[in-house]
Amino acid sequence: MLEDLTIGFLGAGSMAEALVHGLLGAGLTAPDRIWVTNRSNRERLGGFARRFGVHVTPDKAQVVERSHVLVIACKPKDVAGLLAEVGRKTRPGQIALSVAAGISTEALAAGLTPGVQVVRAMPNTSSQIRESATALCGGPGATPEAVAVCRAILGAVGKVVEVPEPLLDAVTGLSGSGPAYVYAMVEALVEAGVRAGLPREVSHDLAVQTVLGAARMLVETREDPAVLRQKVTSPGGTTMAGLQVLSEHGFHEAIVRAVSRAAERSRELGLLLASAPGAD
Ligand SMILES: NC(=O)C1=CN([C@@H]2O[C@H](COP(=O)(O)OP(=O)(O)OC[C@H]3O[C@@H](n4cnc5c(N)ncnc54)[C@H](O)[C@@H]3O)[C@@H](O)[C@H]2O)C=CC1
Ligand SMILES: O=C(O)[C@@H]1CCC=N1
């Protein structure tokens, strides 16, 4: 499905890098089917060319011209500027696949040529190793075929679910930002091990393997996380003592609030484009 399509990345940051890396690693498309552009960092584009063998150019109009699928991969605050520059150079039938947090398909469509098929998605940086947790939705005018193309692109870099658009902010708070919560927990585990006397490297390796093992247990046993937690927790034992401290410090509630605040922030970011000068 993808081999005849040219995919153009408008933005060459962390997310574009993770997607290009994952797409090429999956072998679903070839480097000469990918174009990448950014705002101004030529060195960064050179890095993409050297590392992945993809086409790079500072000429955004050229990327728009050559691509069947345009991946909008700049920060939400930069989407209005990008659309002002090249939005009207798009053509009906092209697919615009946005990964920008919070920006609605309606706001995107308003800055693109009528007839462009807009799909909004929220992958995460684990796309780089083809382990993303991604959700997507088709916007107004996106055909089932356009959504299927985007599913195939994002399916190459992880698991994909389709959700109604209003739920994408919640997805952003949970799985878009989620890797950072896990990394923050690993940072804390490593630091805790060091404070308890372990050499940093040993503490790091044990913490990482613990998270990996726990994630694999969730996937392979399909057991409820609460059941797995109970199996670690002997009555009167060490885990119970540790979990008690987590509970006293509001661990569960802190995670719930973090996801909720991130989802709210996604909605706030959406207002950036809705209120941008020139937005319809
Ligand atoms: N980093 C993450 O974990 C995730 C990010 N996202 C979304 O992906 C988008 C990109 O995020 P990152 O890659 O982290 O940002 P980044 O800051 O690493 O990269 C942004 C890129 O956009 C380019 N850019 C800015 N204005 C431009 C313009 N007018 N024309 C062309 N390129 C332009 C910049 O030059 C840069 O290459 C954001 O909208 C973010 O919400 C979505 C899922 C996860
Ligand atoms: O922090 C952000 O805004 C982006 C969206 C999800 C993950 N990173």
TrEMBL record:
Compartments reported by the entry = Cytoplasm
Could you tell me what reaction this enzyme catalyses?
L-proline + NAD(+) = (S)-1-pyrroline-5-carboxylate + NADH + 2 H(+); L-proline + NADP(+) = (S)-1-pyrroline-5-carboxylate + NADPH + 2 H(+)
What domain of life does the native source organism fall in? Bacteria
Cross-referenced PANTHER family = PYRROLINE-5-CARBOXYLATE REDUCTASE, PYRROLINE-5-CARBOXYLATE REDUCTASE 3
Database matches in HAMAP family: P5C_reductase
Name of the coding gene: proC_1
This chain belongs to the protein called Pyrroline-5-carboxylate reductase
| An MF annotation (GO) of this entry | pyrroline-5-carboxylate reductase activity
Q: What class of enzyme is it?
A: oxidoreductase
Q: Which GO terms describe its biological process?
A: L-proline biosynthetic process
What's in the keyword line of the UniProt record?
Amino-acid biosynthesis, Cytoplasm, NADP, Oxidoreductase, Proline biosynthesis
Entry keyword NADP = yes
- Gene3D superfamilies, sorted: NAD(P)-binding Rossmann-like Domain, ProC C-terminal domain-like
Q: Name one GO cellular component term.
A: cytoplasm
Give the protein's function. Answer: Catalyzes the reduction of 1-pyrroline-5-carboxylate (PCA) to L-proline.
What Pfam families does the entry give? Answer: F420_oxidored, P5CR_dimer
Q: Which residues form the Pyrroline-5-carboxylate reductase dimerisation domain?
A: 165-269
Q: Which SUPFAM superfamilies does the record match to this protein?
A: 6-phosphogluconate dehydrogenase C-terminal domain-like, NAD(P)-binding Rossmann-fold domains
- Domain Pyrroline-5-carboxylate reductase catalytic N-terminal: residue ranges: 6-102
> Which family is annotated?
Belongs to the pyrroline-5-carboxylate reductase family.
